[in-house]
Amino acid sequence: MILRFFCISTVFLFLAIIIFALCGRDSNKNKYVISTKNIFYIELAILSVSIYLHLFLAVLTPTGDSVYFSEVMTKLTEENFYGFYQRIGITYPPLFNYFFYLIGQLLHLFNIPFDYSLRLFVFIIKLPGIISEFLMAAIIYRIAKKYISEGQRAIALFLILLNPGYLFITSYICQIDALYTLFMILTVYLIINRKLKLSYFCFAVAILFKFQTIFITPILIFAIIDQVILHDFSWKRFWSHLITGLSAIACMALSYLPFIYNFQTGEISEGGIAYNFTTSIASYGRTSQNAYNFWTLIGYNMTAHSETFGPFTCNTWGTLFIILIVILCTFFYLRNRNDVTLYPMLATLLISGTFCFAVKMMARYLYPAVGLLVLAYVMKPTLKRFICAVTHSVAFFLVVSFDYMVYPRQIYTKDLILPYFISFYVIACFGFLVYTIGSENRSHER
With contact defined as beta carbons under 8 Å apart, do 202 and 183 qualify? Predict the structure, then answer.
């Protein structure tokens, strides 16, 4: 099993290098290394193989995380929304629940049981994530048409559709990280295109699918400061953006209403809106939930976050690390805030840095970093950005595959060797990302 995952990583890395070599421009920058016709065939091959692998993996595993989905959908469709979070415990924000409530009703309509041993049920549950992944690829490909050559677009297509981590999580394990990643990428791109008001609602949608979207909050704050306050400031625009932003927040709050308010009795559930968020955060009480990062590297994987490390608890260190990462991100932004292609790189910096050094991280939290790095590459196709996207892809695949298939949390022990090597590699990927952003800043200054 271990050898298989390292072989998959090696094959992905080899193919990425080959496609990069074939589909880029040659040294004189005037023509492709291969013909545009062959580039079309490469794109067609990527699309065909990707569709086959997604569908094959989608019907290959009858269980995976579909056990959880079958339980949640039963609760959503057979019981009232009110008190749902208190009954089910840890679950996703409201938009996820509404989405799968509709899927559950469609399954009822066609008499398909919520049975995780039924391959048809599992396939249908996986389908939204698969569709979101292809939509992500389509959006990035469309964006790429504005910035890069046809050959380089094939590289971006490969990095999304044949990404081993994405294939593993979306089609094999049955998780929906592609849904919120799709809206996270849209949020960043709307910011880049100065469509800030739309980005507020897109950001809200992403959060309502998964709370981890909050990692990129500083990017939205930078955009507000730049586009509303520093650029052509007027009180009219300021109040307009403030009202729009508050409207997005109000929509988020209203989405919780059916879950916390009983319309028949007027009763409000205990904990209110904050219950879902605080319960989810409090429930992951480990420094690292098999997220191979800094804490795994020093032997603290699966250790309670309240444990002491030096003068502080791990939880305190995690908070300090987040503050430092935000400061570093702010520093890079201030040095080169006129480069709009920097936004997806900074968003990745926040996600990857938080994953590496904060506590309570899980393996899948690195998922959006890959998509954002591909977006960053298509907006500025440098070798360093390509390396960042590929190395993070391998890191993400190794972390999630080892978490689910090799050393799941119930059998993890501190004497295992490979998690330490993977943790070092993940942190090295983050280090190269920081180096890449820093080198681009220095180049811009010159």
Answer: yes
